[in-house]
Design brief:
With 233 residues, this protein is α/β, with parallel strands linked by helices. The chain is built from 5 helices and 9 strands. 21% of the residues lie in helices and 23% in strands. A 9-stranded mixed beta sheet has the order 3-1-2-4-5-6-7-8-9. Helix 1 runs parallel beside helix 2. The N terminus is likely disordered.
Length: 233
């Protein structure tokens, strides 16, 4: 199977891939739908609640794969939804080559999970740009100071901003950011609990008390279907 017809990227670029697996989307707009996940190694942040730390260290195991190899693995699954995750996918050298290649296959629905600290401006003018599911790291994460706030100038309607909340203080800060940047008018907005740290019912109460119209509460489905620490699900 050849690469997409018009793609002119660098076929020599390789990426550090920690794992590739098929499952359901555990969160976001396509929660509950099948997806193929490409998890890349390496992250520039160290969130207090990180559940993929095993893929982020200097000695994390990985396989070097070319864009063509990744593309073929995706196509072999027959699954249309593709999630590029990590780690932090946008840290991968030459990631734009892979993004442009995947964007040319209009049968695929590609989503990038990014931590909010890496500029998304370089991808703003891409035709058929993959959707960005971008975190805002709240105070409990310990990483809030690294957020790239100019990213909010480049959000598109098919993007998502996600707030992973560990406390009521996190929820209050999420509300401030949602309001300040008028996020509900610009993209999808999700609140998600840090598993085991805050009860979802308390988050619903907060949403009601603050009339958070257009904001979605999401639970990480994979942590309820399988062991919360399971990999490859």
């Amino acid at each position: 199977m050849p690469l997409t017809a018009h793609w002119k990227g660098n076929t020599m670029t390789t990426y550090k891939v920690a794992e590739i697996f098929s499952s359901i989307n555990g969160e976001g707009r396509l929660a509950g739908q099948l997806a193929v996940f490409i998890r890349f190694c390496g992250c520039n942040l160290n969130c207090s609640f990180c559940d993929t730390g095993w893929a982020n260290t200097a000695d994390s195991p990985y396989t070097l794969m070319s864009a063509e190899e990744i593309f073929l693995r995706i196509k072999d699954t027959g699954i249309k939804n593709v999630t590029l995750t990590g780690g932090e996918p946008l840290l991968q050298q030459g990631i734009s080559d892979l993004l442009y290649m995947l964007s040319e296959d209009t049968a695929l629905n590609v989503e990038i999970e990014t931590n909010g600290s890496i500029p998304i401006k370089p991808y703003a003018d891409m035709t058929n740009r993959p959707s960005m599911t971008m975190d805002y790291k709240l105070p409990d994460s310990g990483m809030e100071m690294y957020m790239c706030m100019e990213n909010y100038d480049f959000l598109q309607p098919h993007d998502t901003v996600k707030f992973v909340c560990g406390s009521m203080d996190d929820l209050k800060k999420a509300k401030t950011i949602i309001t300040q940047y008028r996020l509900v008018e610009r993209c999808a907005v999700y609140l998600s609990p840090v598993y085991g740290k805050i009860h979802p019912s308390d988050m619903v109460d907060f949403m009601k008390e603050n009339t958070l119209n257009g904001v979605n509460l999401q639970l990480q489905l994979h942590k309820y279907i399988w062991d919360p620490n399971a990999r490859g699900v």
